[in-house]
Amino acid sequence: MIVVYGIKERLNPLKAQLSDVIHGCMQAVLGMPEDKRAHRFVPMDKEDFYYPGGRSDAYTVIEINMMAGRKPETQKALIKALFHEIEGQLSISPVDVEITIKEQAPYQWGFRGITGDEARDLNYKVNV
């Protein structure tokens, strides 16, 4: 699951495009299938969204929650792909993008009435 935070006036107009960019990177780097898009957008009022100095109102935070198993090189490749594609397709400077990857053990994921370690029918690889 991916959660994206930003100032609503900047985030709302590009949510669909940003979702496409993020999912494209997830597919290219992690091999995620087309139908595994799980994005949540949290548009915020400017007065509720504090961010570091040197950033603009385009500042966007992307939190990626995933089952543990991806190699550090794979995770770094995903982060770099996101910076590159977001800048190239949406003209948001990498200085205005913050990306965190939060890993949880498969047994800490629950979906379709089972835990992730019980799933035997995933159509993507976790250990890449």
UniProtKB/TrEMBL annotation:
Transmembrane segments: none annotated. InterPro entries: Tauto_MSAD (IPR037479), Tautomerase/MIF_sf (IPR014347). It holds the Pfam family Tautomerase_2. This is Tautomerase family protein. It comes from Amphritea pacifica.
